[in-house]
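Q: I have 458 residues here and want to know how they pack in 3D. Can you give me a structure?
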Amino acid sequence: MKTAIIGGGITGLSALYELEKHGIDAHLFEASEQLGGKVRTYRRDGFIIERGADSFLARKPELMDLVKELGMEDRLVPNEIGQAFIFWENEFHPIPKGSVMGVPGSLSSISSSSLLNPLGKARAALDLWIPKGRDVEHDRSAGDFFRKRFGNQMVDRLLEPLLSGIYAGNLKDLSLKSTLPLFYDLAKDHKSLIKASGHLQQKRQGSSNSKGQFRTFKNGLSEMIDALEKACSSERIHKNKELVTVVNEKEKTKLIFSDASYELVDHVILTVPHDRVSDVLPNSEMAQEMKEMKGSSIATVALAYKEEDVHSRVNGTGFLVPRANGTNIKAMTFVDKKWPHAVPKGYVLLRCFVGRPGDEQTVYTSDEGLKNMVQSEISEMLDVKGSPIWIDIERWKEAMPKYAVGHAERIKDWKRAVQTVYPTVQLAGASYEGVGLPDCVRQGQMAAKHVLQQISER
């Protein structure tokens, strides 16, 4: 019994690792010469630059458990705890203390915020009187949900820049149930999101040990990719093998690759993005719908400076910029503050994010144009005297999946349609049931366990 895993990101590698542990004949095929998918660490002159994801959430167990299993706990680094800000009307406003993903945990944190005016604060406080459960009977837009709860001002200035940045979509289009299940569940069980967020924050603080909630590795996230690759048999990882199409052939499944080679297998786990699935599974009735659902585009621009050339910086780990502010930069991380181990002493590393949902043309600007634009906007936000030592640009074109309203049901339909025509094929990865690294690990492991179950039943 042979299993093929298509895609060498963390989803595919987790599936391969899980199957190999159980002695299954599994092989991974990656179209490029590099494993890792959206995990892409770049090292230069003592700097560690993440071009994709920069960390993972420690409280989600799947990746942490895998780290322990691989004996990598001593390589973990927590983020430094520091104040994050919203840049609004040329001022830096602290994100309210005790917030859970932007939702303040008390009325006092709202009333003391410099980001909202008195009318905005009064409107946000109405959350205390909204009946429990009534607004989450069905999946709905995250933007509509939060506007009903807190009003336009809090959404536009605080929640939109934070949540749209995480989920790479416009809040008015994003599924509350699929992108923010925490708030979906809290709204079902609590009358007030403010009070619920406060209780949740207290609970987390009570069980924490003063470390940040995110983790990376001493030499960058690619350490995890390297460790998984080493833990798997090298002869079962095939790079530069791009899948062209999947064909049902009697009791087997035939995989045809771009180099004209093919493999006959019994099980297939597709971990590539959904638009690629539509290319390799042309006979699925959902193929066209998959193809038409475009992802968001984003560019990361990292700028390294000498410390003495950046003055009067806001004292924090980074800031977000609301859409109405009119800038192309939507967020910036002070990497030397958030991840000090990644930046040599005496230097500053700014990591900027460009490309707002629905307004992503800046991502496709030339390198020179992107550099000039980012530097110009930085000079308006920060007191920067010198020129950067170097600038690194990475573009992710239509690479960030959008979980639109009805996403969960849509994914069920996709998987059902695929199974109808290709019964040996499973879908897993960031396009489906979670975009974070722990979510991808979970999906890879679950796909592998499904294969194990099918083999056991045979």
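Q: Anything worth noting?
A: The chain has 16 helices and 22 strands. The chain has a mean pLDDT of 91.
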